[in-house]
Amino acid sequence: MAEHRIKILKDFANAIFDGDKNFEVRENDRGYQKGDTVYFDVINKNGSEEIHPIRSTPYEITYVLSGWGLKEGYVAFGIKEKEQLEE
Questions:
Q1: Where are the strands (E) in 15-73, listed by range?
Q2: What pLDDT score was predicted for residue 68?
Q3: What is the phi/psi pair of residue 74, to 5°?
Q4: Which of 5, 55, 72, 79 has its CA 20 to 30 A from that of 12?
Q5: Which segments of the chain does DSSP mark as H helices, in order?
Q6: Does the reported pTM lie above 0.90?
Q7: Which domains does the chain have, with CATH numbers?
């Protein structure tokens, strides 16, 4: 399983953090697969990095959808906060 670090706008990061958003739509330039881990780098509308609680939180890709009305080369994938083993 692969790990991905991707940029996300603060408004969308807030929605994920609040539990309102549990999916992402992305260009599939990384070959996203079920079981992969995603980390988010939060940015503002100017592209500058923001401090945000989800930055160090791993999310597991739970489902990947392509086709079905999505632009060619794009996917929608479901995410859930990944359970972390206590050390």
A1: 23-27, 37-43, 59-66
A2: 84
A3: -115, 155
A4: 72
A5: 10-17
A6: no
A7: 3-81 (2.30.130.30)
Per-residue pLDDT reduced to its tens digit, 12-21:
999 999 999 9
Q: Token pair for residue 67? A: 């086709």
> Residue 70 is encoded by which pair of tokens?
């999505």
Distance CA 40, CA 19 (A): 15
Enumerate residues 6+ apart whose C-beta is below 8 A from 43. Answer: 7, 8, 9, 10, 49, 50
pLDDT digits (tens, 9 = 90+) for 24-73: 999 999 999 999 999 999 999 999 999 999 988 999 999 999 998 899 99
Nearest residue to 53 (alpha-carbon basis) of 34, 30, 81, 22:
81
Cα radius of gyration (the chain): 13
